[in-house]
């Protein structure tokens, strides 16, 4: 059942190219860039009536929401609020029929997220669920759905469901931007091709990334604490890396926006504090590099994940994992892979049961 892999989690990490391909299958025309999402039940004029989007989710799915905010605001030109479902449901919400609420949930059964969409719907909001389970409660109660087709996820720590959510959310972004005509035809083709192309890049790179990480973790696996940092589209991936590491290895880990370090957390940095920094060559690269150099000046133990060919990184640390140079909007999907594998390799090196971490359940159906 594990198809030769030692754990479901590793099998599911390797299933990601297929999960993304299945999620996109039949939904993008590679020639014209045109996207169709029939189960969304929304098109053209429906989006003219929307002037705000709420993204509501828990845990890893909330990290997918944080990435989607950047994409939707950039291309579909709609303001997006992101909320943790357990906060959303008890807040004084300013919602009406001009607000769209999107729940993101692998299971479609998470109690807080479900309660959130019930409240939003009562307040007149259109409700959409991004979901991996056909016929789940959230999909039954929503006006529209975007299914991820990651297949069943057995490992308690979410891996392939997360990257499939990112693929579905980028697909949704292109769709809305096309319906609202906020991107050109050419841009639609460019974004569609970038999304379709990411699966084969991940497929090709996975074994190399795992191999390099398994060698690198020998000097990091016994750490007590870990920081993950990133800016822009990499910030939510830093949060996701920290969550993965703490839930399966029990190492205390935190994710930060790189620019926040100097507002407090930099006090933690010394020669015993490992920091994984995501530094793709994107539009905030120069800013990220100056943050990383500040960490280096405080003798932090840096691991850098950056763009292949970026030799400047070698002046900062010897511990570098290079990623291929993909379309910048695909970096969150690409950079999730080393974050997952670092957590997996450290946890297994520490002898942890990665498929069944203590105190955790796959689906949280109670508050
Ligand atoms: C972490 C993890 C959880 C879930 C969260 C939401 O690896 O799996 O944080 O992401 O419990 O679950 P869903 O997406 O089913 O609503």
Automatic annotation (TrEMBL):
Residues 43-182, 216-357 form the SIS domain. GO terms for biological process: carbohydrate metabolic process; fructose 6-phosphate metabolic process; protein N-linked glycosylation; UDP-N-acetylglucosamine metabolic process. GO terms for cellular component: cytosol. Its main location: cytoplasm. One of its GO terms (molecular function) is carbohydrate derivative binding. Homodimer. This is Glutamine--fructose-6-phosphate aminotransferase [isomerizing]. It comes from Desulfopila aestuarii DSM 18488.
